[in-house]
Write a structure and sequence with these properties.
Length: 120
């Protein structure tokens, strides 16, 4: 299995999951989008993880690389139909890429938070 990871800032990486990936023999490549690294050919990968970051999905003026990233996410999900995991900003990018809306969280949530289930 080959995993592609989109990162938006050096400290927002797969974290402890790196150990599990190594144990399971999963090869993975990280693309540091905020540093200008290009998005590789998506067809070479089996799964896509999109990590978090401090920017917002609509901050394309300050982070122009969000535009090709959203295009890649849309291609990944709609055309390639392969597994996707979005964490924090990553799941917001998925929603935005597929026509959903995202807005500011009041108050903002950063780090580990307590969550509660709601009725479906």
């Amino acid at each position: 299995m080959r995993l592609l990871v989109f990162q938006h800032i050096a400290i927002e990486h797969p974290g402890i999951f790196r150990d599990f990936l190594k144990q399971d023999g999963v090869r993975w490549d990280a693309v540091e989008l905020d540093e200008g690294q290009p998005i590789p050919d998506l067809r070479a990968y089996d799964a896509l993880w999109v990590m978090g970051g401090p920017m917002d999905v609509w901050d394309v003026e300050d982070n122009p690389w969000l535009i090709p990233e959203k295009r890649a996410i849309r291609q990944w999900v709609r055309e390639l139909k392969r597994p996707f995991l979005g964490i924090c900003l990553g799941h917001q990018l998925l929603a935005d890429s597929l026509g959903g809306t995202c807005g500011p969280q009041r108050p903002p949530e950063v780090g580990i938070m307590e969550v509660s289930l709601t009725e479906a």
